[in-house]
Design brief:
Number of strands: 17
CATH topology of the domain at 112-278: Rossmann fold
CATH superfamily of the domain at 112-278: NADH-ubiquinone oxidoreductase 51kDa subunit
Strand order of the largest sheet: 1-14-13-17-15-16
Strand content: 15-25%
CATH architecture of the domain at 112-278: 3-Layer(aba) Sandwich
Largest sheet: 6 strands, mixed
Shape: globular
Number of helices: 14
Helix content: 25-40%
Distance between the termini: 53 Å
Radius of gyration: 21 Å
Mean pLDDT: 96
Length: 444
Amino acid sequence: MKLFSFKGGVHPFEGKELAKGSPITELKPTGQLAFALSQHIGAPAKAIVKAGDRVLRGQMIAEAGGFVSAPVHSSVSGTVKGIKPHMTGTGSPVSCILVENDGLYEEAERLPVIPLAQMTKDDILNRVGEAGIVGMGGAGFPTKVKLMPKDPLKIDTIIANCCECEPYITADYRVMMETPERLIQGMRVILKLFPMARGVFAVENNKMDCVEKLRALCASETDMEVAVMKTKYPQGGERQIINAITGRAINSSCLPADAGCIVDNVGTLCAISDAVFEGKPLYERVLTVSGEGIQNPSNFLVPVGMNVSEIIEAAGGFRSGAEKVVSGGPMMGFSMITTDVPVTKTSSSILVIEKDVVSRSETTACINCGRCVDACPEFLVPSRLADAAERNDLEVFDRDHGAECIECGSCSYVCPAKRHLKQSIATAKKMVLAERKKKAAAMK
């Protein structure tokens, strides 16, 4: 059996067995929810409700703030208490609409359902936009914008990113096992937008049960197939998955559409299916709570805006001695300074680490072993980039293509000197990109 893959990458401890067997359980929040106005790339959404308003589940409470933006919908019925800054999982305060849940879950009227065969391309794009769908596996790029490339006829491959390569996270796995039909339906919707394209479900070979389910469902589909990927991190990275499937390469100056591809993850495809076939906006998502520091590793269907502390409680709470909570996975997630933060559309996992070995590790001098170079999926020299970053030498950093780093953390993972390579590179990368943006603005 052919396994698709890319050059570089690492094989971290998977940890998926902790929550893999836990079926998706729906959670109902209590108390107050916080709906971030900025939970996607682009302009923040604009609130269209005010303190004292009563809202319903599925009601739009914030409209898109620009072309690259997405609306926000309430996941509960209740009363708007105000619009205030609230800490998020990334550690920064964001303006949020605060809604007091009344526990009734009264639903707003859903978007009208039109048979897919009767929908025009504009109907589909408008529905995806109205539903507030964004990429649910990464930075949260508004999906309507992603589905509007400059030249749609050049798109020949729609990739469903089913890899879920981050350790511990099993949310997508459970969705594929429990409701794989929604993935197929979501793919059908996207393929209607791109008549020259084929749909590829890219699944790592540590999920062969998902491969079998999807292959059975694709058997009668002439424009869909399943590609089995080698289990390796970061197999689910956008550039890596495109290269593995098509052999094409892109860099930071390109979009996937420049390589003839559209890439969407499991949650996004399901949200598209729900919006088109059920008229349901995106106001909830599946999230994994896992790690050796949590009592009952679980997969939950959680409302957007629900407090993470309440979700941790639903998973049995912390084990004695748990030392760190991470929003996301261990490779690319963010250490949380508080669990008093809301779930957003891009929240994939809450990881509770029992022993924080990273903080205890002592950093020593680089021994020039080259392991970071072998591991880097972007063919960079991370040790050299980190040296330039630590010297604040942005000219050398940029010359050595530091902006091409995808911040996967593979270099830090393999470094025997325990250097914080990814963190140093990411900091310098932000500075370089900010300087580029400043220069571009000055030239206008």
